[in-house]
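Before relying on records like the one below, remember that each one covers exactly one chain. Contacts with other chains, cofactors or solvent are not represented anywhere in the record.
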Amino acid sequence: MASLLELSAALGQALQAKGWQLALAESCTGGMAAQTVTAIAGSSAWFDRGFVTYSNAAKTDMLGVPDSLIAKYGAVSEPVARAMAIGALLHSQAQMSGAVTGIAGPGGGSPHKPVGTVCFAWALREADHLVIETCHFEGDRTQIREQAASYLLAGVLRLTG
Protein backbone atom coordinates (compact mmCIF):
# COMPACT_ATOMS: atom_id res chain seq x y z
CA MET A 1 0.00 0.00 0.00
CA ALA A 2 1.29 3.45 -0.89
CA SER A 3 2.25 5.78 1.92
CA LEU A 4 -0.10 8.55 2.98
CA LEU A 5 2.18 11.16 1.42
CA GLU A 6 2.42 9.23 -1.85
CA LEU A 7 -1.36 8.90 -1.94
CA SER A 8 -1.79 12.59 -1.18
CA ALA A 9 0.60 13.59 -3.95
CA ALA A 10 -1.13 11.32 -6.49
CA LEU A 11 -4.51 12.58 -5.33
CA GLY A 12 -3.41 16.18 -5.77
CA GLN A 13 -2.30 15.52 -9.33
CA ALA A 14 -5.57 13.78 -10.17
CA LEU A 15 -7.73 16.50 -8.63
CA GLN A 16 -5.78 19.28 -10.31
CA ALA A 17 -6.13 17.54 -13.67
CA LYS A 18 -9.91 17.59 -13.22
CA GLY A 19 -10.04 21.06 -11.69
CA TRP A 20 -11.77 19.63 -8.62
CA GLN A 21 -11.50 20.34 -4.92
CA LEU A 22 -11.85 17.87 -2.07
CA ALA A 23 -13.55 18.04 1.32
CA LEU A 24 -12.90 15.44 3.99
CA ALA A 25 -15.05 14.47 6.97
CA GLU A 26 -13.06 12.48 9.52
CA SER A 27 -13.98 10.92 12.81
CA CYS A 28 -11.70 8.09 13.95
CA THR A 29 -8.76 9.44 11.96
CA GLY A 30 -9.03 12.81 13.73
CA GLY A 31 -7.85 14.82 10.74
CA MET A 32 -4.94 12.55 9.84
CA ALA A 33 -5.93 12.43 6.17
CA ALA A 34 -6.37 16.21 6.00
CA GLN A 35 -3.02 16.72 7.74
CA THR A 36 -1.32 14.54 5.16
CA VAL A 37 -3.06 16.23 2.26
CA THR A 38 -1.98 19.65 3.49
CA ALA A 39 1.62 18.42 3.79
CA ILE A 40 1.71 18.53 -0.02
CA ALA A 41 2.89 21.91 -1.31
CA GLY A 42 0.20 23.63 -3.35
CA SER A 43 -2.64 21.56 -1.87
CA SER A 44 -4.72 24.70 -1.41
CA ALA A 45 -5.44 24.44 -5.15
CA TRP A 46 -7.31 21.16 -4.69
CA PHE A 47 -8.15 20.78 -1.00
CA ASP A 48 -11.08 22.92 0.14
CA ARG A 49 -11.52 21.86 3.76
CA GLY A 50 -11.62 19.13 6.33
CA PHE A 51 -14.10 18.47 9.09
CA VAL A 52 -12.91 16.68 12.22
CA THR A 53 -16.17 15.42 13.66
CA TYR A 54 -15.08 13.16 16.46
CA SER A 55 -18.20 13.49 18.62
CA ASN A 56 -21.74 12.74 17.61
CA ALA A 57 -22.61 16.39 18.28
CA ALA A 58 -19.88 17.51 15.88
CA LYS A 59 -21.24 15.19 13.18
CA THR A 60 -24.64 16.80 13.63
CA ASP A 61 -23.50 20.41 14.10
CA MET A 62 -20.83 20.54 11.39
CA LEU A 63 -22.15 18.11 8.78
CA GLY A 64 -25.88 17.96 9.41
CA VAL A 65 -25.91 14.26 10.24
CA PRO A 66 -29.34 13.67 11.82
CA ASP A 67 -29.30 12.65 15.50
CA SER A 68 -31.92 10.05 14.64
CA LEU A 69 -29.59 8.41 12.12
CA ILE A 70 -26.82 8.13 14.72
CA ALA A 71 -29.29 6.79 17.29
CA LYS A 72 -30.69 4.20 14.89
CA TYR A 73 -27.47 2.89 13.31
CA GLY A 74 -24.66 4.12 15.56
CA ALA A 75 -21.94 6.62 14.75
CA VAL A 76 -19.89 3.86 13.15
CA SER A 77 -22.20 2.79 10.37
CA GLU A 78 -22.55 3.09 6.63
CA PRO A 79 -25.62 5.37 6.86
CA VAL A 80 -23.69 7.81 9.06
CA ALA A 81 -20.61 7.68 6.80
CA ARG A 82 -22.91 8.41 3.86
CA ALA A 83 -24.47 11.38 5.67
CA MET A 84 -21.01 12.66 6.59
CA ALA A 85 -19.83 12.56 2.96
CA ILE A 86 -22.97 14.35 1.78
CA GLY A 87 -22.68 16.86 4.61
CA ALA A 88 -19.09 17.61 3.66
CA LEU A 89 -20.23 18.44 0.12
CA LEU A 90 -23.14 20.55 1.34
CA HIS A 91 -20.89 22.54 3.68
CA SER A 92 -18.05 23.15 1.22
CA GLN A 93 -17.25 24.24 -2.30
CA ALA A 94 -15.70 20.88 -3.14
CA GLN A 95 -16.72 18.67 -6.05
CA MET A 96 -15.95 15.49 -4.12
CA SER A 97 -15.78 14.32 -0.55
CA GLY A 98 -14.58 11.45 1.53
CA ALA A 99 -15.79 10.46 4.99
CA VAL A 100 -14.57 8.02 7.62
CA THR A 101 -16.01 6.83 10.93
CA GLY A 102 -14.73 3.86 12.87
CA ILE A 103 -13.57 2.17 16.04
CA ALA A 104 -9.81 2.53 16.46
CA GLY A 105 -9.71 0.95 19.92
CA PRO A 106 -8.49 -0.33 22.17
CA GLY A 107 -12.00 0.03 23.66
CA GLY A 108 -15.33 0.77 22.09
CA GLY A 109 -15.78 -2.42 20.12
CA SER A 110 -18.67 -4.85 20.34
CA PRO A 111 -19.43 -8.29 18.90
CA HIS A 112 -21.28 -6.63 16.00
CA LYS A 113 -18.74 -3.84 15.54
CA PRO A 114 -15.33 -5.01 16.75
CA VAL A 115 -12.31 -2.74 17.12
CA GLY A 116 -10.99 -2.05 13.64
CA THR A 117 -14.43 -1.64 12.06
CA VAL A 118 -14.32 1.44 9.84
CA CYS A 119 -17.04 2.79 7.54
CA PHE A 120 -16.22 4.96 4.54
CA ALA A 121 -18.19 7.00 2.03
CA TRP A 122 -17.03 8.92 -1.00
CA ALA A 123 -19.27 11.29 -2.95
CA LEU A 124 -19.19 13.26 -6.18
CA ARG A 125 -21.32 16.40 -6.34
CA GLU A 126 -22.11 16.57 -10.05
CA ALA A 127 -22.74 12.93 -10.77
CA ASP A 128 -24.71 12.44 -7.56
CA HIS A 129 -22.47 9.41 -7.18
CA LEU A 130 -21.84 7.78 -3.82
CA VAL A 131 -19.70 4.82 -2.79
CA ILE A 132 -20.01 3.28 0.68
CA GLU A 133 -17.84 0.57 2.19
CA THR A 134 -17.07 -1.01 5.55
CA CYS A 135 -13.64 -2.45 6.28
CA HIS A 136 -12.05 -4.20 9.20
CA PHE A 137 -8.44 -3.31 9.97
CA GLU A 138 -6.08 -5.12 12.31
CA GLY A 139 -3.51 -3.67 14.67
CA ASP A 140 -3.26 -1.18 17.46
CA ARG A 141 -4.98 2.19 17.58
CA THR A 142 -2.26 3.95 15.59
CA GLN A 143 -2.14 1.25 12.94
CA ILE A 144 -5.92 1.21 12.53
CA ARG A 145 -6.06 5.00 12.21
CA GLU A 146 -3.23 5.03 9.64
CA GLN A 147 -4.85 2.26 7.60
CA ALA A 148 -8.18 4.09 7.70
CA ALA A 149 -6.65 7.40 6.57
CA SER A 150 -4.79 5.63 3.77
CA TYR A 151 -7.92 3.78 2.65
CA LEU A 152 -9.90 7.02 2.71
CA LEU A 153 -7.44 8.78 0.41
CA ALA A 154 -7.09 5.72 -1.85
CA GLY A 155 -10.88 5.72 -2.23
CA VAL A 156 -10.89 9.37 -3.21
CA LEU A 157 -8.15 8.68 -5.75
CA ARG A 158 -10.14 5.76 -7.23
CA LEU A 159 -13.16 8.02 -7.63
CA THR A 160 -11.16 10.55 -9.65
CA GLY A 161 -10.41 7.88 -12.24
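The radius of gyration is 14 Å.
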